[in-house]
Amino acid sequence: MSIATVVSVFNGEHSVGSQVTVRGWVRTRRDSKAGISFLAVYDGSCFNPIQGVVPNNLNNYQDEILKLTAGCSVEMTGEVVESQGKGQTFELQVTEVKVVGWVDDPDTYPMAAKRHSIEHLRELAHLRPRTNIIGAVMRVRNCLSQAIHRFYHERGFLWASTPLITASDCEGAGEMFRVSTLDMQNLPMTDKGEVDYDKDFFGKEAFLTVSGQLNAETYACALSKVYTFGPTFRAENSNTSRHLAEFWMVEPEVAFADLDDVAGLAEDMLKYAFNAALTECREDLEFFAQRVEKTAIERLEAFVSSDFAQVDYTDAIQILKNCGKKFEFDVEWGIDMSSEHERFLAEEHFKAPVVVKNYPKDIKAFYMRLNDDGKTVAAMDVLAPGIGEIIGGAQREERLEVLDMRLEEMGLEKEDYWWYRDLRRYGTVPHSGFGLGFERLVSYVTGVSNIRDVIPFPRAPRSANF
Amino acid sequence: MSIATVVSVFNGEHSVGSQVTVRGWVRTRRDSKAGISFLAVYDGSCFNPIQGVVPNNLNNYQDEILKLTAGCSVEMTGEVVESQGKGQTFELQVTEVKVVGWVDDPDTYPMAAKRHSIEHLRELAHLRPRTNIIGAVMRVRNCLSQAIHRFYHERGFLWASTPLITASDCEGAGEMFRVSTLDMQNLPMTDKGEVDYDKDFFGKEAFLTVSGQLNAETYACALSKVYTFGPTFRAENSNTSRHLAEFWMVEPEVAFADLDDVAGLAEDMLKYAFNAALTECREDLEFFAQRVEKTAIERLEAFVSSDFAQVDYTDAIQILKNCGKKFEFDVEWGIDMSSEHERFLAEEHFKAPVVVKNYPKDIKAFYMRLNDDGKTVAAMDVLAPGIGEIIGGAQREERLEVLDMRLEEMGLEKEDYWWYRDLRRYGTVPHSGFGLGFERLVSYVTGVSNIRDVIPFPRAPRSANF
């Protein structure tokens, strides 16, 4: 008798006739009139539970087995037999069921085997991984993260963990969370009546980072190819389905690479990750296609087999102006495109993922490389059908004098960027990178539209429970 | 002509006689009297730079090549030839050197090709990845992180990202960083004169997590095998070589597993990771053995080929009392062993990695499973020769009534742990896990003794630069 995961039984890793013990939780129990019970037991190793056929001559049949309910934990031992049911390869002819943990008051068990609204599940973040949907999300999330690490590793990138706590709001991007150990009830003050951050843990004001990019650049300018995969924070007070206060980002940064190089890298990475999901999480994706988003599988398959379109921002604006469609927000050269524009381009015009390149410098960050026209920068957004922007990137300004000019234009202090400027003073190289919001990727692959449902414990305004 | 990484040339991926372009930074330049220059160029893809043999008939030989200094970025094109030098397989017979970026005032370039103290390099965290030592650390760090992800993936674990921001100090472990968006200069107060956290971003006090364990347990109790790999925080005001305010932790959590199961998992994981480093980062480890820690390679090889010893805490105390050695801190049953005790056990007594098990309950956390003796809990520490404690873990208390008793004993409120207790109310299972401080692992493998030097941008008291 050996311990077996459910997936290993389904995959035929235990020969028919052998005895195995599966350990997990009861999804459902069904009793036939003939005095046989059917237990569906899951353990998280795959989407489907395994069926145990339990004869009524087991010792604890009356006292225990007939009392099993959804959520009870069991060790179920039996002989592997070919399944008569459709869709399943193998099941267990059960010889022993050991009850490990009961469910307190099954009538009020929050995860009883019925369908719950996904909003309701969010309130029960500690139990929702027991549901089909969150279990499937987690397997896909894991698959995508493993694929991303593998992708970069195979291509010779080094994972570089950039710091979460930062004392400089270098990017100036939006609201940041303050990190402090000062006694709030009793703040130390300077002579001038200001909070005395010199007394704080880091000896100055500190915040949670909004991006690892500037730090990653220092490593790319030494080791050529690096990527980050870590948490990032935004203190924006926005309660949308696409925003979290804490989320995971993937940020590759490549020396000697221009914008087209990293556009190609983005295309390769997305296709690699989607192929992994299509191959390794088929059952989970089938569930999403059935219950959440009909096109879940087709749109991934279309994505991996399509060539990305490429269009200049300036041309994209012309397309939008001439398309005859009425948009909520007016289209003019210089605007920051909104979601309706982006989705029109990807879904209706190009009918493919699109890389929009060379945006007006005034709507982009100081570190993006100025193009020869003096008006645009070498920035890109990757727009995906069905979701809009999924990746944002740029070639970085590697010329010290241009960088300084841009800092000045934007009213930023050169001194604050001394170490960033050093990279341009000492052996500067063209380099480029992009950022991928990992939860948006998981959301896209699963079709689960609110990103609070694709991260284990979502953080949002007024919401940091568990 | 094709673009090549340095490692790909060394590995013979480009046939002798073919033309390749290598892109990177000059480590050294040496000019022979015969009118030939030798450029050593690195790109981070491996430890050694590649040698380019540059004839003096190149167009820019006088004007540029003879002015190249350490840190200049170049694109060097040439024919792959077998190297005459020892230790190197191939070099380039150079036909073109394009200078991409010069070094401003080479005499003051902080990373000029001389040896710097590792403390000095810490002040230059943005440039130190250009040094041999930090480059090697980063390749080993990357190798270990990839190996850890691979290890768990191969064994069917799911990566679960637990939250960084938490509103509950569940573990009560040490000082935490507060996360807030309140205007410190103008704090909102309640009628009672207390800071009004209801006005804060999350509507209550929030902190940076000290461990993902309790959250990971909720996922293990649904999906069986999970692990975290993410940042963790300690606001301890300690300036030691083994502490950081921000560091990365690996925390597996396994359902239906007891303490011995995860002791075995810890052994397998460490050996897997060390084998990866020995195989994939040989040159880097040779450098560490030469320059940092003589036994760097031997001790890893000894580690992977040794069986872990196992000893009960109670027996370990007897060993320490009877060993005849004088310790700084007295040995009595009930003490929290200090580093000298741990290292004696691993280095002198067992001469192998040791798992110490079943610690007195009074020195361990509430969630560790109470043993039948009523005095000890199923906790373990893994001690490694040369470093001491590297892993801490435990079987978790899965029995609700015992958990409640322990909470009460420790003066903790049951209500604060409602969701943690729910796991014991609904299909509870025996489960176990451990935590590995990732930087301590990198420090152990490289021999670089201060963990500030094995993380890209260390955070410590009064130190959050870059």
From TrEMBL, chains A, B:
GO molecular function, one term: asparagine-tRNA ligase activity
CDD domains registered for this protein in UniProt: AsxRS_core, EcAsnRS_like_N
Reactions performed catalytically: tRNA(Asn) + L-asparagine + ATP = L-asparaginyl-tRNA(Asn) + AMP + diphosphate + H(+)
GO BP, one annotated term: asparaginyl-tRNA aminoacylation
Superkingdom, natural source: Bacteria
NCBIfam families registered for this protein in UniProt: asnS (TIGR00457), PRK03932.1 (NF003037)
Family: Belongs to the class-II aminoacyl-tRNA synthetase family.
Subunit structure: Homodimer.
Name of this chain's protein: Asparagine--tRNA ligase
